[in-house]
Design a protein that fits this description.
single chain, 19 helices, Growth Hormone, Chain: A, mainly alpha, 437 residues
């Protein structure tokens, strides 16, 4: 019985189970919209590469537009309420697409507006989500909490795309977006049922710009957070450039149907499940710092298999390469996000997460436009090659930082990084002396 309880861990907590359930339904719904939204543009509206790139850019443009003030605002609000509002608002937005399609009024400009507004709500939701978890589970349980939630995301990448592709083939892409709208509404219901309430933030009336500046100074003034931000922003820039062309490449260049595309993405998603299962053990084996850069260095080059794909066995080889790449992405995210949450004071959590989101997700709209421009100029396949090569070099900022050799990362808002680094240097010198003697 005790062994079963230890395996369940946080799942024994009723409120965490509800957050876990909300994450599950919303993540599977997201897989539908991830596939359906660009397919609506490609098939229903017959857009070109550049227009797909603009649509992809608008889905993440909000991180540049409202990323920084969102953190300051979230730190002034109860984060649970932000989660509920984000879910409900996004559900309504997605439902407008099939409604307009049924009425014969759907346009590319509506898709652009839905992508942008959906992205704005996602910014607030994501900042509140990552800031709410420490309150819900406690800092000591952050790695377990993030691992379990990442496992849900990973599982959704396995089963979601295949189910989404089949659904789209049966009911068409616009109608399939209703599935994500329903999933978001259900997610909001689960969050409403969480009983653990936050106290109203006791913050004096301060200037918004001053609050934003405090978050920026905290992140940019922290050597480890700064290097993580540089790595993630580079990887996201390249990922957005390739992401803008993936559906276009698989549908137009290779001629694959929605069902097959979903299966290809599902195979790649298996790696995310593996990553969620091994993240904690891998970090314990190689050390937390090395786990951050090794997870990117050793898996990102496998993304080069996608632009080499052709219909037949090579498309499944590319999917397997995507699975390896996904292992690294999840290990990286579990390790670095848990560290970020643990090292930040409670009153700065929203602004730290918003600043990081601004820095690392703000490159995505740029990458989406870049992918569209490159796709129009040199084709989707060559764009995928360029993005994969760039992503393979994203690990360099963390490799060249103190993270390279730090087996244990500093934790707690009052950590002393300089003292820790000095202790590690002294320890290595003493070890070398003992080996010589």
């Amino acid at each position: 019985m005790s062994r079963d309880r230890s395996r369940l861990g946080l799942l024994l907590d009723r409120d965490f189970r509800r957050l876990f359930a909300a994450t599950t339904v919303s993540q599977f719904g997201y897989q539908v919209s991830f596939l359906a939204l660009p397919l609506v543009a490609v098939e229903t509206l017959a857009v070109n590469e550049f227009e797909v790139g603009i649509l992809t850019a608008l889905t993440t443009a909000a991180f540049l537009l409202v990323g920084l003030p969102a953190g300051a605002w979230v730190d002034r609000m109860r984060r649970r309420r932000v989660l509920i509002a984000g879910d409900v608002g996004r559900a309504i937005l997605l439902a407008t697409v099939p409604a307009a399609w049924w009425a014969g009024m759907l346009t590319l400009w509506q898709l652009y507006a839905v992508a942008l507004l959906h992205g704005i709500l996602t910014v607030f939701f994501d900042v509140a989500y990552q800031s709410y978890l420490p309150h819900l589970v406690g800092r000591a349980n952050l790695v377990e909490g993030n691992s379990r939630l990442e496992s849900v995301r990973a599982l959704s990448h396995v089963g979601g795309p295949g189910a989404a592709g089949s659904l789209i083939q049966v009911v068409t892409a616009p109608v399939a977006l209703l599935a994500d709208a329903v999933a978001l509404a259900l997610s909001a219901v689960f969050v409403v049922r969480i009983t653990k309430r936050e106290e109203r933030p006791h913050r004096p009336d301060t200037h918004l710009v001053r609050d934003i500046g405090e978050g920026l100074r905290f992140v940019l003034g922290h050597r480890l957070l700064r290097s993580i931000a540089a790595c993630t922003s580079t990887a996201n820039l390249c990922s957005a450039a390739t992401g803008a062309m993936v559906i276009f490449f698989l549908r137009r260049d290779l001629g694959l149907g929605a069902g097959v595309i979903g299966l290809v993405l599902s195979v790649a998603g298996i790696g995310g499940v593996v990553g969620a299962l091994v993240a904690r053990r891998f970090a314990a084996w190689v050390g937390q710092g090395p786990a951050i850069w090794l997870s990117v260095c050793c898996t990102a080059p496998f993304a080069l298999l996608l632009p080499l794909a052709e219909p037949g066995w090579r498309i499944w080889l590319a999917a397997a390469g995507g699975a390896v790449f996904a292992v690294g992405v999840v290990v990286y995210n579990v390790t670095q996000v848990s560290f970020r949450q643990a090292v930040t004071p409670d009153h700065l959590l929203g602004r730290m997460n918003a600043t990081m989101r601004f820095l690392v997700w703000g490159t995505q709209p740029i990458g989406g436009i870049l992918g569209g421009v490159l796709g129009s100029a040199v084709g989707a396949r060559t764009t995928l090659v360029i993005g994969a090569v760039g992503g393979s070099l994203a690990f360099l900022p963390v490799l060249l930082s103190p993270l390279r050799t730090m087996r244990e990362l500093p934790s707690g808002p009052e950590n002393h990084l300089e003292d820790l680094l000095e202790e590690q240097v002294v320890e290595r010198i003493e070890r070398r002396r003992s080996e010589r003697s």
